[in-house]
Structures are given as C-alpha cells and as structure tokens.
Amino acid sequence: MSPRLPANEPRRYPANLTWWFGWLSLVPIVAPATSVLACLNAILSLFLCTRYPEKFTGKARIWMGLGVCALGMALFFAEAGLFFQWKVDQVYEQKMSISRFRLTAISGALERYRQENGGYPDVSGIMRLKALLEPDYIPECPVVDGFDGAISVISSRNGFTLTCSPPAPPGSKERPSPILMGGHFQSGPLPPPPTPPPEAGAGKAPEGTGAAGETNPPAPSPGEAPSGGKSAPINPHPDGTPSPGPG
Q1: Structure pTM?
Q2: 70, 42 in Cβ contact below 8 A?
C-alpha cells in the first residue's frame, strides 16, 4: 500500500487532474471535450490553491496541463482544417466529373441524331437543343453543368461544340480552363448515277468482226477465189504450160 500523506500535507489531485486532461487533449477525437474539462478543472484548481494554500497545491502542474491542452487544441484545428480542405476539394472534383458526364450524354445524343439524319442539327442554345433531342435521342437532356452553370451549344450539320465554364476552386482565384467537347462529321461524295441497262442486240458483233475482235475478210462471190491468207494459185504453171492430164 502507498503511504498516506499526513493530514496537514497539501493535496495535488486537482492539479494532477488538469495535467491528465491536458494529455488526453492530444487525442484528436476527444480533444474538444477534454480541453473544456481541463480548462474548467484548471479554474477550480487555481481557486483552491489560491484560497486554501494550506490544503491544495500544484500551480506549476496546472499551468503545464493547460499548455499541453493548448497544444492538443492546435493540433486538432490543424487536422480539422486539412480534413475540411480535402472534403472541399473532393466535392469540387465530383462536380467536375458531373459536368463531363453531362457533356458526354449530350454528345452521344447528337451522334445518334447524326446517324439517323445524316448530319448534326443546325441549332444554337441548350434549350433549343433540348427540345430537339428529347425524348427520341435522350430521355432528359441536361441544361446545366455540375456547378449549375449553363451549358453552351453551337451545332451545325458538319460539327458541334459543347462548352461549360467551371468556377475557380475554393481558395484559388484562377479559374480552370473551360471543359470542351465536340464532334466533326464530313459527309462523303455522292454515289455515281445508276448505269442504264444494255439495249437489245448490244452484244451482237458487227459484220466483219470475229469473236475475238479480229476482222474477217468478206465472203467471196460465186466462182471467185477467196482473197486474203496464203491460198495456192489456181494455175500452178504461170508460163501457160498446160498441166499434164491424167495418164
């Protein structure tokens, strides 16, 4: 058993309680509560030490406990500030993602319109585009981005541009670049006109032309030797000598 203090010895437990509360304030999750308890206990302890110095002592420990308590609260506010800034940045990035998603949805609806109509609509303004696309190409066309800002639309037959301008991030004065999304379509050349069907007799070869495209000599008259080619002469003796008759 620990030895008991004499009856006339000043007590230190109010001061020690402030010291313990000061160390507990270093734990972030309980820092606000323990800091309040440490301050209240310090006020009571100082009052007792001042009013009844023969019964209570430990002013130095009380001030040290309050110092540790102040350090714990400083750490708590620093961590809370970092957490709050992280949460704000997270919300900002979520709104940026929503803006990109909505522009992508409008872009997909415009592509479906082009596939069915051969080109993009010739329109400007998100409300006019909304009336044109709903409900055939998109169930509900967005008209604002993730920051509740209006979406800008410029569309013609060969292309379109969607734009939204997000605000500056929290704690910054510089606005980010606008979010752009567009499409381009170049229509191909017109198909050639259909070829007319061939007329009757178009496949018959003209007179004097062979099957392979060669020119044939005209047919000889009766009693006339055929012309052209390497035919043998009718009279093999050109000097007039009669051919020998049959023996």
Answers
A1: 0.57
A2: no
